[in-house]
Amino acid sequence: STVQKQRQELQLLIAELKDRDEELNEMVAAHQSQLLAWEHDRQKILTLTEQCSLLNNMLNKRDEVIKSLNERVKFLESQQNDSKATSENTQQKFKELSQKVTDTTARCKALEEKNQSLHCSVLELSAKTGQLQAREQELLTMLKLKDEVILETTDHITQSTSKLRKLESALCAAKTEEFSLNEEKQDLKLRLKELILEIDKLKDDLCEKRKENSKQQEEIIHLKEENGYLRNELTLAVEKTKRKDQLLLFAKSKQARTDTELSSLRQV
């Protein structure tokens, strides 16, 4: 019975060894298929590496193109800023000139009003001078009767005379000022004509600058669209490269697991 049991155990062991042998054969076949797949993956990785190098070269070239486009965009933006600054300066100068013309017109009106008021004052002073002269004749007839009145009248006459002299000097000054104001008015009129011509010229320059600015803006928009398109292509290429790297890592980890399993099976 012991021998039979041992024979049965031997038969069981032989059957188990056969099963293990079949499993080993299957694992060897699987390992060979995995080796073939690994070789295929290695060839594929080599091709992918070459493609990555080509893509890197293309990316470098695209980076150079993008850099040149960015530089061109910066240059065009600087030109646009310069043109904006020029247009703003032109508009500011136009506003200042308009304000100056308005101030000059108001000043001319004020001077004309002042001249009219001075003329009225001169007429009043002339009438007052006649009145004072008549009063002086009356006072001369009353000199012998009233000394105190004479003294007061003399003081009054001296004051009136000083006032008259002051008024005459003011009249002369007003006339000279009127003459200078007329000259200044003529100069301002000439300056106004020159400023109007300069404003028209600045308006023409502003229109040309705006046209040039619109063209530059259209070119900048086109360059920005092309830059965005190139950036999208670059992002897609980088994502493809990352995915290929992930697949390569997965294949390497799978190969490592297969090697560990095969070494453990060989030890068994």
**How helix-rich are the residues, as a percent range?**
over 70%
Q: Kindly, what is the distance between the CA atoms of the first and last residues, rounded to a whole number of angstroms? A: 31 Å
Structural class: mainly alpha
Radius of gyration: 55 Å
Mean pLDDT: 81
Low-confidence stretches: none
What is the overall number of helices?
A: 2
- What proportion strand? under 5%
The profile of the biggest β sheet is: none
Shape: rod-shaped
Order of helices and strands: HH
Strand tally, please? Answer: 0
Protein name: CCD62 protein
Coiled coil: 3-34, 59-114, 178-205
Keywords: Coiled coil
Organism: Podargus strigoides (Tawny frogmouth)
Summary, kept brief:
This is CCD62 protein. This protein is mostly helical and 268 residues long. It is 97% helix and 0% strand.
